[in-house]
Amino acid sequence: MMKFALFLGCNIPARVQHYALSARAVLARLQVDLVDIREFTCCGYPMRNTDQKTALLFSARNLALAESRDLDLLTLCQCCFGTLKKAAHLLEKDASLKEEVNAFLAKEKLAYEGKTRVKHLLAVLHEDIGPAALKAQIQGAFKKLKIAAHYGCHALRPSDVMQFDDPVSPGILDALVAVTGAKSVDWSQKLECCGAPLLGVNDDLSMKLTAGKLADAKASGARFLTVACPWCQLQFDGVQSRMETEGRTDADLPSILYPQLLGLAMGLSERALGLSMNVKDIHGVNAFRVE
Which residues contact 34 (CB under 8 A, 6 or more apart)? Predict the structure, then answer.
């Protein structure tokens, strides 16, 4: 049985609980043991542009907590994934920085030596478990369902640090969509930003980016989007709903979290996967399932 320390970060427990709910349900079915470390705190992402040293210390402490239990760290949030991976990269490349960070960690009797790997949920499903093992768990594959796979930004770049997938032509999420029986469509704005980072700073530009992606995915034949990032999900779900009321989009392209999509194909219940917690109704996806 595989075992990971589950790092939820801040956004998922507060605003996208169904991401954690569906991921836990799917991983439990796949016999992946998740350990919750209550001492985990923010990954440091919100401070990265204002106080890089403090952001690094936040990340290093979380890494050290996982390392103290001899566990690799599994993230659901791409911002957390990118931040923790960047911290591990910096500490590996700079011995003096690592020594400075460990001096702070020693106050809590912690130390980070670089033994803990940081993995995103999609990489665990694709690399550690693998498509063949996932297919063996499928109980009701989707048929004639076209999905627009949205990768997000932080898992792909900088590619030499993230080591997640090809940043120009990624394929992990497309392969995982195929496992469910659904077809991942080809769309030109596949790798463009969802617009979430600009929300609250420049709402018009944020929603313009979102509207462009939605229109392109819809024109490519997609019936749903699928994502594996809480920020992207919030943008394509709740913000899309707001955009509809404001007349900014008529795409009506609901976003389903990838573990929800996979979980349905595995025969898990809608309640176990938190389908009713999505803002836009995604229950219609079940019409494409073949028992």
Answer: 3, 4, 5, 6, 24, 27, 28, 74
